[in-house]
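[SOLVED] Need 3D model of a two-part complex

Original post:
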Amino acid sequence: MDFTLNAHQEAVLDAVGTLLSRHAGPARLHGLGGDEPGYDHDLDKRLAEAGFLDIAEPGSICRLDAALVLEAIAGSLASSAAGWRLLVVPTLGVDVDGPVAVVPEGHSGPARFAADADTLVVIGDDHVRLVRPDRGAARIRSRLGWPVGDLNGLPAGGVIHDAPVSEVRSWARVAVATEMVGAMQFALDITVQHVSDRRQFDRAIGSFQAVQHGLAECAVAVEGARWLALEAAFTGSAGTAAAALAQASEASKLIFRRTHQYHGAMGFTREYDLHLATLRLLALRSEAGSLGRPAAACAREHWGI
Amino acid sequence: MNFDLGPELRAFRHQVRAFLEDFGDIGAFFHHEGDYDVATRRLYLALGERNWLALAWPTEVGGEGRHPLFEFVLWDEMARSRAARPPLGSGIVAKTIIRAGTDEQKQRFLPGLRSGEIFFSLGYSEPEAGSDLAGLRTRAVRRDQTYLVTGEKRWTSGGHRADYLWMLCRTGTQESRGRGLTILIVDRRSPGITVSPLTALSGERFNEIFFDEVEVPVENRIGDENGGWQLIGESLATERHVQFQPSRVRRDFDDLVGWLSARNLTGDPVVRHRLSDLAVRVAEVEALALAMCEAVQDGRDAAVEAAANKLAGSEVAQEVSRLAGDLGVPDSVVVGSQIEYLWRQSISETIGGGTSEIMRGLIAGRGLGMPIRG
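Solution:
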C-alpha cells in the first residue's frame, strides 16, 4: 500500500494544474456566467489537446490517473463534462468525441450538459445507448453552477451491444463522487482561509474551538470521500464506487452547511466564490440520486442486501 | 401547566387569518428577484389601518397596548401564509424611540411607523463587524448641531428603498468597543450616501452603503451619545417573541409533504422514514416556541428560550429544505421550482438575525451557566 503519488502521476497533476490555473478557476466560471454558466468548450479543447481527457487506458480496470485528473478539474470549478469523458466513456468500448451527457433511461427534464453535449449516454437497467441529442435541447434555467439542458424525451436507438451496463453505471458513480470531492475541497479550502483571516471579537474566528471542530469534521468527511473515490477508481469495484458516491453525497450536506455558516453573510452573496462550489454540490447530489440510490447499491454490492 | 395560548390570542389568530385571505399570495416573507414592493407596501398600510403595527405599543403613543404575544401570533400567521416578516420600523425602531426618544422624536417618527408609511433599514453590520458589532468602525463626529458620518455598512437588507437607516455609529474610540457607540437615524436620501447592490443567493438585494461625511442633525440621535450599545441590547429583548416564527417551518414541511403526495412518493418507506423523523423536529420547534412564549407571557427575560427557538427553528427549516432537495429530484435543480425556491430561501436563516454560533454561545453561557472565556 502506498498513498503517495508516483512520479508519473505527479508530473501529470503538475501539468494539468498549470493548465487549469490559467484556463479554469472561479474567475473563469464567473466569466462564463457564475452560478448559471455556459459550457467551457475552450477548456475542453485545451484539455483534449494536452491528452488529459484520454488518460484512462482502454481496457484497463484501473482509472486512478483519470480520477486524479478529474479531481483537479472539479477542484478548479471547470464548466466541463470532463468527468463523463474521463471515467464513463472508456467503458463504452466505442469512440466518442466532444462533450457527453449521461442520463438514466427514460429521463425527461433537466440534465447536466444536455444542451451542450454532442452525445448522450443513456443508462438503462439492461442496456446502454448512445444517441445524439435533439439539437433543440434547450438550456434550462438552473443556478447551481453547471450548464443544464432540458431533455424533452430521449431519441430511440443507439444500443451498444454487449456494453457492460453495471460497469458503466459504476463509473458514472465514481465520476460524480470525484467531482463532489473536488468541489468540496474548494469550498473547504476557501473557508479555512476565510476563518483564518476574518477577525471578530479581536481574534480570528478560526481560533474558536467550535469553528475548528466543525471544519475538522468537514476535513475528515472530505478525506473519507476522496479515498473511497480513488479506491473505487483504482479497483474498479462496484461496491466501493457506490460507497464513494454515498459518502460524498452525505459529506456534501455537511460541507454545504458548515462552509456557508462560517462565512456568514459574505458567503451568501453572489459576488463571492463559495456558492460556485457549494451549489454545484446540490446538483451533483441530485444526480447521485438518479444513479440509483447509492447507499442501497453499496449495501447490495457488498452484502447482497 | 397549560399549553394553550388562551381564548383571546386564539380569537386574534382567526382574525389575522381572515385578514390575510386578501394578501395570502404576496409571498414577501421570502425574497424574490422581482420587485414586490408595491404589494408589500399595500400590506403594511392595511396592517397600519388596523393599527396592527402598533399592537404592543403603549396606548399613550397610539398603540393598542396589547400583550407582546399578540405580535407573536400576528407574525406567526404572516409566516404561515408567507405574507411578510416583521418590519424593523414598528419593532426595534419604534420601541426604542418609545423608550428612549424625545417627545419631538416620538411625534416625528411614530405616526408614520404606526401607519406603515415609513420604512427603516438596519445599519448595524459592516465589512469588519458582523457577529462582533462592538468592533464597528463607521464614525460619527460631532460638529456643533450635527454629526458627520463616515464609513461603510454592508449586507443591508432593503437599504436601497428605505426612507431611513437605523444606524449604530462609533462616537468613542475604537478601543472603547460597545461603550463608544451611538444610535443615529439617518435620512437615506442625505447627500454623501452611496448605495450599491449586493445580490444574495436567495435573490434578495443586499446593499453596501457608503457614507462620506453625511450630515445628521443632533436631534436624530436616539438616547445618549455612547449609549447605543445598551439601547440595542434592550431593543433585542423587546423583539425576542418575533425573532423566529415556528409556523414558517410547519408551512415548509406541509408544502414538502403535499409536493411528495402529489407525486405519489409518500408510499416509499425511505421517504416515509425521513418525513417521520422530520415531523418530530417540526413538533420540537413548535414546542420550543411555546416555551419562549410562556417566558415572555410571564414577563421573564426570554433570552435563552428565544435563542433555543431561533436555533432549532432555523436549523430545522434547513433540514426541511435539504430533504426537499434530496427527494425533489430533478426539479430541485431548476430555478423557479417550488423545491429549489424552498432551500434557496433557507440558506441564510442560521446566519441572519444572530448566527447559530451566537445562539449556542448564549444558551451555554446564560442558559447553562457555563464559564465564558473572554
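Edit: The longest helix of chain B spans residues 269-297.
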